[in-house]
Structures are given as structure tokens and as C-alpha cells.
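Justification of resources, computational component.

The compute hours requested in this renewal are based largely on the per-chain cost of generating structure records like the one below. Each record pairs the submitted sequence with a full C-alpha cell output. That output is archived, and it is also reused by downstream analysis tasks.
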Amino acid sequence: MRSIWNGAISFGLVSIPIKLVNATENHSIHFRQIHLADGGRIRYRKVCELDEEEVSGGEIGKAYEDADGTMIPITDEDLAQLPLPTAKTIEIVAFVPADEIDPLQMDAAYYLSANGVPAAKPYTLLREALKRSNKVAVAKYALRGRERLGMLRVVDDVIAMHGLLWPDEIRAPEGVAPDSDVTVRDAELDLADALMDTLGEVDMDSLHDDYREAVEELIAAKASGEAVQPSESEDSGGGKVIDLIAALESSVRAAKKSRGEGEGEVESEEDMADVHPIKKKATPRKTAPQKSSPKSTGGKKSTASTAKKTTQKKTTSKSTSSASSSKGTSSANSAKKQTSSGSRSTTKKKTAAPRKRASA
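The structure output for this chain reads:
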């Protein structure tokens, strides 16, 4: 890798010659401006405002614009004469725990490479000291015409330096937080924790720029003369949060499905035991009164029909009992008739017997 700066690390009385190498690279796709009528490139030319003539780079210098618009020329010689101890030195000023560095201060990252064989020993000494102490080094250095703040830490077997913004370059977050007082319930926090646990960790090396890949495919398709089909993007719902609890529950289910947990299965109440009890605590939403659903109407109908059936059964049982009682009465009457007729015939027989004896 090509170095962009040569200097030394000042570590007390130790000086370590190093080369500064970019640790990051920009993979963004850059476009040119063209004239739509003929496709010609549009270029920016540096023109003097006074004579309106184009000026070359060798004729351009620096100046500071005063409040009243006056230009104060500043030459490279003027800047070179300024007392700048860090012009060619990364001067370590302190060793602090890494958590004392605000991530908001993080800027560009660089690798520090030992410059030559004599630099290998002190370079390794500083690297191992940083490892064993679990600290980072705060340093000052000069790059591209200004003094900067940096943080040195160990990445694998290399010392890396992160450019830091000066503390007064970090803006206070005034007026950024929500204005109204918002109360977050334990139920919502529990669901948020469940979502965090479901998403879990990620392999940072697996993350990539999907948009850049799509742009590259678009350029390749246009270059080959292929027709570009518009892709259908998923509707995210317009960013409206209708029900926070429901949104969190849906997010947990979607995360589980994407990770293949319970895919294709309907989660039962036991499976969602960590979610459904929480849902009961949610504040009910104000909704318009709803008409009775067909299900409730059907329930009333079924109740009425059940009552009718019960009444019919009672009526039937009464009629059956009355019928049976009438049958029993008629049977008894017929039995009485048979008994009376039987007794009459017996009386007749007894009466007729003496008559025969008299005639004899």
C-alpha cells in the first residue's frame, strides 16, 4: 500500500520512524456531469472574477477572507514558518482507557507501518505495551496543512491511528431529543429486549453495500444495451407507528422467520408466552364503535334456536306424558268393561242352571 505521509512516533524519548497508510477506502460510485443534448462532459473551470479569464493551478494561491470581504493572502512560506512541533511527528500526549474516547470524535483511520529495520524494535515495544495495558494512546499530528488529534490502538499486529475531531468540534445535542415527555412501559422494554435477543449478533464481514451492487448491475445492463426492469420495493408502511406493541411483536416474529426459527409453523400461545401476556398490559386504543359482527349475531341466533328446541322438547314430553296417561286411562276403562262383561256372563250362567233342573 502506498504511504501518504512519512514521519515518526514520539514516545517519550523514543522515536519510531513510521509511514502513514490509509486503512480505509471509498467504494462509492462516482458520476460525471454531461450535457443531455449530446453527452459531452461538463467541466468546472477556475475563472478570475476580475478579468474573467481561466487561471491554471500554478497561478492560484491561498487567502483568508475577512469579515468585510477583504482577502488576506497566505503563502506556503508563511505557514512553514509557524512553530508546529507535530509537522513530521505523531506526538503521544497520554494513554487512556478506550472507553474514554467518544465515538463521535472518530474520523479517518490509518495504519502505521514501521519505516525501516531499525524501527521494528521500538514499534513492537509500543504495540505490546498498548496490548498489555488495554489502553489507547492520544496523540497530536499534522496532516494536510493543519494539526489534528489522533488515537493509537492495536489491530491484529499493527498499530492503527484514528483521526479524532477536537472536542470543540463536537456539537451539543440541544433540541435533538423529543420535546414531549414519553413514558416507556416495562412491557415495551421486554418486547424490545426479545427483539434484540432474536436478532442476535452478526458477522461484520458479511455486511455489504446492496445499493452499490445494484448500481453496478444497472451500469452493466445499460452498457450491454439490455432493458432495465424496475425492481419492486417493499412497502415499509410509510413510517407510521400505529401500535408499538404490535409492531414489536411482528418484528420478533419476522426476525425468527428470517433466521429459520419456527418457519412455516403457527406459533401457539405457549410459544408466544413471552409476548402475549405482555400484550394484555398495553393501553387500549381509542377506536370508533364497531357494529356487531356476524359472529355475535350468529351467537344470538344459536341461543334463540336452542331455547326454541328446549321449549319444543318440553312440549313434546308433556304431550307424550298426556298421551301415555290417556292411553293408560283407556286401557283401564277397557279392562273394567271386560271385567263387568265377564261378571255379567257368569251371572247369566249361574241363573240358567237352576232352570234346567226345574224342567227335569
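The longest strand covers residues 146-155. The helical segments are 76-80, 120-133, 186-199, 210-223, 244-258, 276-279, 294-359.
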